[in-house]
Design a protein that fits this description.
InterPro entries: Glyas_Bleomycin-R_OHBP_Dase (IPR029068), Glyas_Fos-R_dOase_dom (IPR004360), PhnB-like (IPR028973). By secondary structure, the chain is an alpha/beta fold. It has helices at about 15-25, 35-40, 90-100, and strands at about 10, 30-35, 50-55, 60-65, 80-85, 105-110, 115-120, 130-135. The protein has a 4-stranded mixed β-sheet. A 4-stranded mixed β-sheet has the order 5-8-7-6, covered by helices on one side. A hairpin with a 5-residue loop joins β7 and β8 (about 130-135).
Length: about 140
């Protein structure tokens, strides 16, 4: 297997809902493992929380996520965003509409000074998404 780089997002108890939301947007196969799957009774109150999940899509996207481990502080920040880019305007606009639907739009999806269509939003789980639609080369 070749090396790959993909986002791994931490959630504070909403990993299952978030990953199912992303599966609804991007499609693909979602695998989910809880703390209880690996720790049994010792997982306690965290038994149903997500220890690891991975969404792999037909488009080649991989997105991983988990709930923070018991006893660890969830400290979301603004130092990372997930970026979607390409030249399939219909596909990317579809992703944008679903991601921004119940979220907050900080930059509307619109033509930008560099010539591409770009937008930035934060989805309902607090994850910032950048969508850039390049003009198709003819």
């Amino acid at each position: 297997m070749p090396s790959r780089l993909n986002p791994y997002i931490s959630f504070d108890g909403s990993a299952r809902q978030a990953m199912e939301f992303y599966k609804g947007i991007f499609g693909g196969t979602l695998s989910v493992h809880t703390y209880g799957d690996f720790g049994g009774k010792e997982a306690g109150d965290a038994a149903d929380k997500i220890m690891h999940s991975m969404l792999e899509t037909d488009s080649g996207f991989t997105l991983m996520g988990a709930d923070v481990p018991p006893g660890m502080e969830h400290k979301p920040g603004n130092n990372i965003s997930v970026s979607l880019s390409g030249d399939d305007a219909d596909e990317l606009r579809g992703y944008w509409n679903k991601l921004s639907g119940d979220g907050t739009v900080s930059v509307p999806l619109d033509k930008q000074m560099w010539g591409d269509v770009f937008g930035m939003c934060t989805d309902r789980f607090g994850i910032t998404w950048l969508v850039n639609i390049s003009e198709q080369q003819t």
